[in-house]
Amino acid sequence: MDNKAENFEECINRVDEIIAMLCNNETSLKDSMSLYMEAKNRIALANNMLENAEIEIKNLIEHLDTKENHYGGNQ
Question: In terms of CB atoms within 10 Å, which end of the chain has fewer, N or C?
Fold first, then answer.
């Protein structure tokens, strides 16, 4: 898994693929455990991406609010 090149949508799509494979009764226990760990890691990565995006949005809103107050707000 190449975390640097992967975006949020790719993480989620891969987790969806893994879920489908885990629901397949033909997947061995060993493969199921490996897939489970991969999905767990990708979910953590996607969650981290969401948290970072939330921080960026909050910072942007604060910056815009500060700029608006500096220039006298909506007139």
Answer: C
Contact yes or no for 45/3 (Cβ under 8 A): yes
First vs last Cα of the chain: how many Å apart? Answer: 51
pLDDT one-digit tens code per residue, 3-56: 455 899 999 999 999 999 999 989 999 999 999 999 999 999 999 999 999 999
For 1-75, where are the E strands, in sequence order?
A: none
The three-point CA angle 7-10-16 to 5° equals 145
**AA identity, residue 63:** H
